[in-house]
Each structure stands twice: as C-alpha cells, then as structure tokens.
Protein 1
Amino acid sequence: MSEINPQENEAQAPEGTPTVKLKLVTPMVLILIQTAAIVYSLRAATVFQNAIGLYIVPIVVVIGLAIWWLRAKHVSKRDRIGGLLLFIALLLLVAVTHTGVGSRLVVGTLPALTTTIVVFLSITASMAWSSRRLITIAAMVACTAYFTALRVDDIGGNLTPIVSWRWTEPPVPADAAWASETQEPTRSITLPAQSGPGDWAEFRGGNRDSRLSDVTFSTDWDSDPPKELWRRKVGLGWSSFTVIGAYLFTQEQRGQDEVVVCYEVATGNQMWASPISERFDEAMGSGPRATPTFHEGSLYTMGATGIVQALNASNGETLWQRDLKKDTNAKIPVWGFSSSPLIVNDMVIVFAGDPNGKSVVAYDLKSGDVRWTSGEGKHGYVSVQLNTLADVPQLLISSDIGIQSFAPDTGEKLWEHLWQVSTNPRCVQPMVPDGNSVLIGTAGGKGTRKLRIENENGQWTVSEDWTTRKFKPYFNDFVFYEDHFYGFDGKRLMCIDASTGERVWRGSNYGGQILLIEDMGLLLILSEKGNIALLKATPEGQEEITSIKAIEGKTWNHPVIADGKLFVRNSLEAVCYELDVTS
C-alpha cells in the first residue's frame, strides 16, 4: 500500500479533519446494520432468521464495503486494489484451513474482518496514513489468525458452528467411542407377540403425535430428581427408541456398519446387534435417522441409505431386506432417508421421495414384496402416519409439494393440498387435532397452515382454515392439548390457538423435542443441549416447573416414556431414568 494520492482527490483534506471522518459514515452504518442482524440472529427462533443474520447480511455488507473502498478517491488506487486483494487472501487462508463442516467459519470470518477494518480505520483517524495502514493490516491478520486457530466440532440446530481451539483435544467420534469398548455377546430374548399398554412401539407413539396417556409421576425434581438407572455410549444417529416390555430398540452408526440394536431396559446391556454394511455421513450429524417399529414379534426399520428391513425382534435375524433406491428412482437425500416404517394391516409403509408416482411405498409385511406405490412428493424429513379424517382411515404424508392422503389398502390418492417448498425440507409430522382438521408445519418463511377436510359422497374438499407465519417449525415436532398447539418456532417454544392460528405466547429458546404428558397437562421438553424440562401446557404463559441436565452433547432425538421410565439419547450416549410414578 502507498500514501494517499492527492491527485486522486480534488478536495483533499488533511488527515483527521471532519471531511475525512465523514468518509467513514457509509461503512460505519453498514457495520452497525451487520452487528444488529447478527445479534438478532443469535437470539432468533428460526433457521431462516439465523441465515439472514449470520450469512446473507454479512455478504451484502462485504459487497457494499468493497464498492465503497474501490471508489474511495482519498486513498490511492494501489492501496485500494492491494487492500481488497489482502482481504480476499485472508478469507482464502481461512477457507483452506477449514474444510468440510468447518467451511462455515469462512462466512463467520466476513463480519469479523469487515468490522475490524472499519473499527481500526476509525480509531486511527488522527494518525498518518502509513501508521493507519500498518495498524489496520496487523489487526486484519490477527483477526484471521483467530479464525484459523479455531476448529469446528459440530453444527447446532440454528446452523451455527460449535467451535473449540485447534490445540485442544478433539471430541471422540461417537462411533469410535462405541468401538473402544469390548464387544458384547449376542443374547436371544423373549418378547410378547403384541405391544402392551405401557409400551412405546413406534416413532412418537401409537398415533405418531408424542402424546402419553394414563401416566402420572412426581414433579418434585428439586428434592427428589428422577433416579438414573444407567448411562451408556451409543453410536451415531438421530433415531429414537422403541420400548417393548423389558427391552428397547434403536438404530446407530458403528464405524462402517449401520446397526439395529436391542438393549435391556433394566441395565442398558446390549442383547443383540444386527449390522448392515452401510454408512451415511452429513454435516449436521451422521448415522440413521428413523426409529424401529415393533409389530407381532418383528422389527421394521429404515436406514439412512434407504435399506428397509424386517428383523426378528428376539435375536436380530434378518427376515427380509429391500433397497428403496432400487425399488424406486429415489436418491439419498442430503439429510438421509428418515422415514420410520408404518404398519397398516399386512403392509409396512415408508416415504421414498420418488416424485414419479413412487413417493410412498408399501411392502408386504411377511415377504417384503412391493404391494403398491403412490404420490409425487420429492423430499421431506417425515414419516407416513395413519389418521381418520371425515370418518375415513387414511395415510398422510407431508413433503415438498404440500400434503397428500392415500387409501391404506391400495395407495389411491384421496386428496391433496399443494403448498410447495424448495429450500428447507418439511421435517415435522402432520398434526390431526380432530376428525376434520390437519395441521401442516413448514420452516423458513412459509409458516403453518390448518386445513379443513370434508368428504361428501366420496367427493373430498380441502379448504384453508388459517395460515400463520408466526409459527415455523423446523425439525421440532409439536403437540396438541385443549385447543392449543405447543411447539417450536425454530428453537423458541410457542403456544398457538388452534381455532384462529394466533400466537398466544412466545417462550424460551429450548429447541429439541417435545412430549405431552396428557393426564398431568404437562410438556416434557428434551432440549438441544440435553436438558429435560417440565412445563405446564397452558395458554396462560410459559411456566417451567422443574428441569434437570440429562445428557451431554447435541440432542435432537425424541424422548420416550414407557413403563415408568424416561429414555433419552443422542449421537454420544443414552440414559434411562426411573420416574416416581404415582398412578
């Protein structure tokens, strides 16, 4: 860089005069906007708001500052070009030192570097240009050194990097943590033919609505917290638990194998593990996503790469196996196949995402043969569910195109509501609060819509009751209780009036997943940070009763309560708590 060139500025003013200081007004305003957007995004509820504050606004600010800098006639042309090239070089340095998931830090470097430049040019305004230039360059290098010294360990639910210093011990990969332990022997178990009243046989429970009935327990956790029965390491994955009698089942990634695992409820000991040579890796978290489904002594599972299986639940023996990619033209989504199998009559039904009439696939329960295919949805982080609307049992699936309904036996399309999304996938299950209504939630700017479903002499009518942009659930499912919906607008807990769609109250940034304890009128929340909180399900406002730290690490898996025990897990560990059941 060189000294200021008077010939490039017709109204050249001495350093430190008001004329020169005014030249910093534009970048200062941009930096203030950028800072406000970042602060807002860090407190924001949704991924969409977070992306605006952390990614879009800083990029716009950089473009604005680059234009301002290149047109700054009070600075020599060589300094302008040299400064811009230095800025680009420092960004490239951060980029080459952070690959894979760490590349998100490059965007994080943008606001830090732009703020550093403007701040140091401002505080050195009274100095000679040679000193200002040197100090500002040194500050830019120091800022870059800070970011290159960081290591990205994970990505949070709001897409922000979770970082630590490069010289600290990196976290042990979850599947490596499992592999470090002695292999456990395979043991056959005895299971009932059908699930019982206290069991949890499939994803989100019997109606896939995360609603637990006929259970009450003590909430005096401050003086008498739930007793921890066991805690153990598990493999990667976002699967939840299926609990049948004395045993529970889940899916994990263990090295290069995707594994369905059976554990003993009382001890956490592994009883058997059924592996397949499949591995799925993704920046937000590797491993399987779906939850096993139990039916008449068998487990039905879907892996992240699309392998659908029937297993003998007593020993993990494979009964049949299908590859969803071969049965349809579906490709592995960027987030992996995530549909938990649904058992209806003598079929197992999953979402595939082939828009050419094979969005939903029904397999024969005993043989695994394809019974029917239907639907046009291309992508979604959802599972098929069975509900009764207008007195007709039907299959519901929400996806990128909206929501569709199918006849269970044949796959015939009964009705659909088209509401297209192209960016954020639909991740939450449809909610059916009554016999004529269904709720479909969408992340990003779309929000949530309540539909009225009517059937007159076989003619289906779908009408919109209301749509709200104030409730934009991402991957956090929601529940229904006494004419109100409780769920997450991104990470922030909310209460929505079911009849109007109006927001009743807006609470804290819990994130994570939610379970309704119906007989107690309580919400159990397993937060993204592994905390368990109990709150009253009331429109009067957020009221937390008690909470405990349950588990370490990023936690997105759905919690389960079965037979008086609370089960939680993530990609690091699983833990079982005994609740003080009162009835």
Protein 2
Amino acid sequence: MRVRWLGRLPYAEAWDLQRAFHGGRVEGRSDDDYLLLLEHPPTYTIGRNGDETHLLVDSGALREMGVELFQVDRGGDITFHGPGQLVGYPIMALPDSRQIVPYVRKLERSIIATLGDLGIQARQEEGVTGVWTEQGKVAAIGVRVSGGVSMHGFAINLDPDLGYFDHINPCGMLRPVTSVRALAGRKVSHQEFIDRLVPRFAEVFEVPFVEEQRAAFVRGTGREFDVDRRVAEGAFSGDPGPEPVLERGRLPGEPERPEWMKVRAAMHEGYRDVKHLMRTQGLNTVCEEAGCPNIFECWDSGTATLMLLGDTCTRACSFCDVKTGRPGEVDIFEPRRAAEAVASMRLKHAVLTSVNRDDLPDGGAGIFAQTIEEIRSRLPDCDVEVLIPDFKGDRQALETVLAAKPAVLNHNTETVLRLQRDIRTAANYGRSLALLARAKWINPAGFVKSGLIVGMGETEEEVISTLADLRAVGVDIVTIGQYLRPSVRHRPIHRYVHPDEFDRYAKEGERLGLAHVEAGPLVRSSYHAREAVGAAR
C-alpha cells in the first residue's frame, strides 16, 4: 500500500488522478495499491443513484457560494467536500469484487478506530453507510468497484464549515452532521489524523504500507502558493539582501563537486552557429536561461530547446535560474520565428518549452500549439516535443496543446512528493500526475514524459517510489539528473548522486515497465530527447 498525502486539489483533477491510478492497477501498469489522501475546495458531488432534489440551492447560488457540482460514478447520494475535510481514495484490488459491503464496513472500522484513538466514540449503523456519533455523522463513504479495483472512498469532517451541509440533504438523509473538532473539543490537524489513520487502515485491511512514504505524506502538503498575488504586489522586485558567503565556491554544508560533474566548455563552430541563430531570430533558449551544463555539447551538435513566451516566469521555484517577475506582452510572431529557426537547423526532433505564464488565460497554450503547427508546415517529418507548465490544472489548455499533435508531451514532476512545497512554487504533485494522465488519454499515440532532479534532499527510495507513481498513471519516458545550484541564492546542493545510483534508477524504471529512463549526472529534460524517443519506440 502506497500512501500519498497530496494536500488541496480541485475535485476534477483528483477524480482524474483516481482514474489514472485505477487504470494502472486494472491494466497492470502497477502492482501496488494506493491510498490517496487530500482536501478539496468547496464541492458537492452526487453519486450515480443520487437524487438531485437533495441539492437545496440552484446553480446561481452555487456560483455565488463558489461551490462546484459534479455528477460522479460512485455509489451514494449527495455529499460535500471542502477545506477542513480529509478525503481518502483507496485504489485497492479486492479479493472478491462482489463483496462491496464488507469492504465498506472495513473503511468504517478503520475510521472508527482512529476516532477512538482520539477519545471519540463512533459507530456503524445497520443499513446505512458512514461513521456516526451521538452528535451526528462525522464521515461519509461512497465507493465504486470496477475491474476488481476500488475507487472513491471516504470524507472525514475534521473542521470544515458545516454551513455547507445546510444546502443539501447529506446522503439523502435529514440527519445532523458534526466534526472531529466538535467531538474532540479541539482542532485535530490533517497531519495528526493521518498519522493515526494510516496504521489503523493497515491493521483493519491487513496490508502493509510503504514505510518511507510516512514522512512524505505527513510533511508534503502540496498546497498551492499564491504567486500571482506576489507578482502583482511586486514581491520579486525588491532588494534581495546581501549575498550568502561562499567558501571555495560552496555554500556552508555543501559537498565538494566530484570529478564526474565537471564539464568542459567547448565553443566550437556548431555552438557559435546556434548562438548566432538564436540572437538573430530574437529567441530565448532554456539552455541559456536555466544554465544547462550540456549547452556546449547540444549546441555544437546543432540542437537547442527553444523557450517560448519570453524570459520572465511568474513562479519562483528554488532550483531554477529563470528570472521571476512580471512578464512582458506575448509576441504573436514568436511561433513563426521559432519555426524558421528549427527549419534552418533542419531538425528531426525539436523541443519547445516556456516560462510559466500564470498571467495568461490559457497559460500560453495557444502559443505552443501555433509553434507546433508552424514547424510542421515547414518540416512535416520533424517530431516536436513540448515541455509544458501545469496550466494551473486547466484541461482545456492542455487539450489546446495536444490538438496540435506533438510527438512528445513532457511535464516535469521535478522532485519527490515530500519536497514539492519547498521546491516547486505554486505547483502540486497531484496536479502534475493528473496532467500526465490526461495527456495520455487525450493523445494515446503520443509519448508522455516527465523529469526529476535529484540531489535536493530526497532519498533513493523516494525516487523509486516516484517512478512507480509515474508509471502507474501512464508515463512512458522519464529523465533523472543531478541538481546544480544556479547561483548563491538558490537552494543548496544536498548531495552529488553517484553514477551507480543513476544506473539503479534506470534499471528500476525498466523493471517497473517504463519505456525508457534517461538517468545520469548531467541529464536534463531535453538531453538526448530524440534518442530517448527512439529507445521508447
């Protein structure tokens, strides 16, 4: 059992994430069961046999309240999900998929045992689902079993705004609801409840859970960070303060750079030609903006990764050297110039990426699509790979990019679950996995790719666990490379990963069923991109 505490995630993305893990289990991409733990923004869901009259307000009132409504494929009637709840989605292969009621009863018992650990008396009730107390219902349960594997699950009221329940007949019953806070007489955090729930869940279901994930789900909240507000308020334009002091080129506590990390700068004719082409076309490259160590090798061979939508990002991730601030206007002629540069180099495999443009309604998806189409009009046989941001989970933006039929859709997960909040500003591990799964569903013929950076504080077990997650949701290709601090103001290097460890990652990825893992100290998302696709094919 792999446990994932994913923090707050919109319901639509979480539903797709469930489907992805469910599909991975049913279709054999994964041999693991999962327990996904998260929290939603305000949402009402109605099960497949639910009665819509149990929603007591109209669509206008829902919009005013800021609540989404979903008709879902679980059992049960209407219920509420929102901040202050702990929602759990077990993705489990059941010994006998016809025995749904015993499965539901085990879910109830695991929650009742956890509440007991908090000094709260709770019970099951004959003929109805959920967890009940003298003060009312404290947890709702609604499940689906398909292909012998469960979906959906439970919602525990830790400390939500119970006023949302006044607008529905919860689960179709005119009975009160309550919260753990009201029952315990104190606030019980998600961390505390999860820490008690997981061992009880494992005990009731008689399944072990992956011990190394314990720190990941307790510490890794995945909550979004309001970067748009910070940019609007000018938080990135002030005085950054004094620079940290380096000792022999290293921050305090950093290891010495090993021999295998040294790169020779070779500015040969090919390198100079690409540099001249980028400047004459007024184009940006991630090779330069992110300080890639492979720039000399790649440019000398006539390849470069074009960075669309300017050189200024709306996010400030702790590993990245791309500057942060208010981006300029979108250059509508950039797709044409980018395509002309690709045609000039007569590339067989072109890679496009961009800064995050959270200031744009579509996140820049339209520019990606236009650039792909411009390249294809000049070089029909050129494979185009796009390394995209998360578009804030906007499925329509993703569909815009995929409608242009890129050969490879790449979106980097960057790091393990436990470190997401520290490293990826405004990003979310669950959101990234949902995006990758959606990409495979929308364009099954294309390759889906993701990348990880190591040496930032993760463990080897966590990296392998992340590879398992990526494989489970349908990813084909993964790149893994060493983190190199771009400047003294960036996150310190935790360790230099030995080449033998990278070899183990590649072998483990192959064992898990990934089509190709490109792993090595100097590997980056676009490194040997064409060769990686060839190997995957």
Protein 3
Amino acid sequence: MKNSKFMIQLLAMLPVIFIPTMVLVVATLIVDAEEAAFDKDIAQIENDFIETEKSRIRSKINNMVDLVEHRHSIIKQQLHDRIQRRVEDAHKVSRALYDHYKNELPEQQLKELIIESLRPLEWHNGESYIWIVNYDGVLQLGADYMRGLESKSIIDFEDLSGRKVIQEEILLAKDKGQGFLWDTFTKPGEPENRQFQQLAFVKGLGFYDWYIGSAEFLDTATKTTETQLLEAINQIGKGATDYAFVVDTNGNLLLNYARPDIVGRNMSETDDSNLHDLFKMIIKTGLSNSDKFISYNWLNPKTGTVDSKLTYVRAVPNSDWVIGSGFYPNMLERGYEAQQLRVKTQHQQKVQYFTTLTWLSLMGALLIAAIMSAMFYKTLTKYREGLAENNDELKQSNLDLEQEIIETNRKLTTANEEIRNLAIADETTLFANHKYSLKRLEYEMDRSQRYKSDLSLILFEIQDWKSILEGLGKSNTNQLLVEFSSELRHQLRSVDILGRLSVDDFMILMPGINVENANHIIQRINRVLEDKSFMLDRPVKIVISAVATEYQPGENITDFLSRAEDLMLAGKDLADD
C-alpha cells in the first residue's frame, strides 16, 4: 500500500520535472542558434565590405584597360592614315614631275630630279622618311644614314625575325598596287642589332618599275599618348590608397604613386629579391587574365607603414602594359566595425529578450506542471481506489488532453504559417519577397548614405505578362518564372538583390554600382533574353521593360522608389508615343 502511494507521488512529480526541463532545453537551443547566427553575421559583414571593395577596384581597372585599349586603337588608325597620306603626297609629286619632264629630260636626269625632290621629306628627326626601291630590290632613295646603300640591292634584307621585308614589299606593290605591312627595322642612333616594330605603306609608282614607301615606328607614335595616359591614370587615384600603378611586360615600372623612388626602374633587374618576385607575379597574373586578387605587403601612402594589400591586375590587350590597383583591408575596419557593433547590440537585445521569455515560459511551465501533477495525483489516487469508479474521469482526462493536442497543433500550424509569411524568398520565383526587398533596400540606402558608396536600383516588368499567363496557365507560368529568375542570377553578382515587388513588377538592387554601369547591365540582360527561350516543351520569349536609377544621398525610400517608378512610367509613355 505504501509502495503504491509512493509510485503515485513519483509519477505525479514527473510533469514538474519534465516540462520545465524541456523548456530549458528548447531555450538553450534557441540561444545557441542565435549565437551561431550572430557569429555568421559578424563574419559576413567583413566579407561583404571586402567583396564590395573588390568589385569597385575590379570595375575601375577594367574601365582603365578599356580606355587604354581604345586610345591604342585610335593611335594605330591615325598611324595608318598618316603614313598613307605621306606616301600618297610623295606619289603625286613624283607623278607630276614625271608627266611634266618625261619628254624634256633624259631618263637618268629625271630619276635624279624625282629622288632629290623627295629626299628632304622626313619626320621625327629622320626616323620616318620616303624611300624608293625598284622591283629588282635596288634602293633608289633612303634615309641619310642609308646613303651608302643607294643604287645597291637590298632585296635580301631580313629583320630580326628572319622575314625578307623588301621581297614582301615588292610582292605587295606589284600584285596589289599598294598596301600596309608590319615589320621591324633599325632606328637612327640605336644599335644595328636592335630593331623596332614599324608600320609601312608602299605603293607602285607606275613607271621605272619603282615603288615608293614610308613607315613610322609604333613606339614613337604611342610615346606621347602613353605619357598623357599615365598622367591621367595617376590623377585618378592620386592621394588615395586605391591609386593605380602601371608596369610593362619587360618589368619596367611606369607609374606608382606610393613608390615614386622606383618608378622608371626595371624590376626584373633590381637587386631587391622581394620587389623582383612581386612584379614577376604581377606581370604573370595580368597576362593570365585571371579575375582573382593577389595579396602582398606594400607601403600604405595614408599611414606611411607597410600593410597587407589586395590587388587586381589586368593586361591591356595588344599592348605591353599591365595596370593594377588595390586596397588595404585594414582601412575598411572602421566601416565594418561600426556595423558589427550595431549587429552586436541587436544580438544582445535578442539574447536579453530570449532570457526574459525563458523565465516567463519556465514560470508558466511550472504552473502548468503543478496543475498537471495535481490532476495526475488525484486521478491516480482515485484509480487506486477503484478502476471502475475512475473510468469516466480518465476518459474525460483523455478528452482534455486530446483537446490540448488539437489546440497545440492549431497553434503550431498558425506559427508555421507566420514563419512562411516572414520568409525572405518568394515561393514562386525564388526572388526576395516584397517585405524583404523593401527592408534590404532601406539597409543598402543607409549604407550608401553612410559610406558614400554607389547604389543603383533597376525596376523592370515583363511585357505582355497577362497574355503569357493566359497562354500558359498558372502552373506553367510559375515554372517559367523559376527559369527566368535562374537566368537573371547568372547575369548578376552574388551581392545583388533580386526582388519581386508585385505580380509583374520586379527590382534588382545593386550595391557599389552607379547608374551608368546599371544601364550596361540592363543592355546585357536584354541581349541575353533576345537569344534565350524558356520552357523547352513550349518555347516562350521574355521581353522586359527596365529602367535604372541611382540613389541620391538624403532620399528616403518613398522618394527613391517614386523616382524610379516615374522613370518607368515615362519610359512607357515614350514607347507608346
């Protein structure tokens, strides 16, 4: 009898032990999950700052490379035009003299008249001049330093690569009448075993089996322009830690704001092994067209100390230049430490909230457990007195428990529904949902305002959306949107935010991107969509209407969105007109 009473008391105490223990276990798991999320957020903040800075540096260097490549293409075109014009003018003079005196002067005297009339024509201190060679390879007119070769055959002349340059010129003049060719040749005042790349233009005279030509060295044509480009590049980052530097593929350092003492030196010949290895790595990385950043220690012009630096380098196509720029990660610490402090404060508030909630839950659990224990004790006591007498009470207790389970399941269902509604992803398209899109927009606007960084917003809608929906049906349209969103993500960076503002209105939030680059991205997306079909079993083409705008400091979210929507409406009105 005493043993059964003890067992009843022990069983009645189980809820008092079990329920509070479970509350403590669940609370501990929640706090541990919050701590893990906090640690991840702290690490992500630093990573986001570094990735944003990498994106900015990469964009800057790519723009510089495009500028230099464009200027070089202009130089070569101008070089073509200039050389051809010289030869055409000399050809006109020669032809005029021949036509005027061919019946008045002996042939040899007329030849000498033509040669001496063209001899004074020279440019760049004698580097460029007019030459005349006959189709047998005999030099008739050359530069002053070549006078000793006049009236002699130079048909077997070879450049350093072994090309028979004079024979190529003769074939070009005879077969095509005129044309350009690149070769190498010696310069006045330079060693004879050193030759320089030049562009030549030759044209047959039409008499005496002569052809006339002129050339200009590429390095002479580019020297002035490259000096101007170096100064322009230097001014872009002068005084900042993200200055640009330029080195050629031979190891000559052409520009470096932080180390003017070594500018002009050849890093492949320096006695400093660290500098030698560093610039060897820079040149190798630039020529490889790698998109990765390299890390090394370098002088920080802001602090005057040697700090760790991340640098992006790229070679200029069709040039021997390698351009690079980088940043010092420790210079970003002030920016992301402030954000980390804010996240830490929010974390502490959450932990305090969870702690308070845990104590309240524990007190509630103790109260519920005490009530349940009393009920169990009473029920078990009556059960001991007689199973038959307590049968109805036991059934009622079971009904009460079932009702509690039903109510608990209802609450869990409601909680799960609320969690789904608060999820950041749109279940249909995997875009960020409306609520999260606006929340992230406010966050990026605040960061852009605080760090004075670029922030662009692209609004777009899918043209003929209603027709697509009617033609495909809801299920197929959802699948189309999934494929469409996946294609969009391939065209964007990982830091860009894709959001769905309404049924057919979408947005792309692009930190660190100005409106000009955002418009380039719109053009790139449109080009991809032109060649892309979705839904292979029922091919569908998607056309979007998009506008880009850039955040203006001081704007609130309503003004920013309204300005973007006004641009979208203006674009529609212009299209309708």
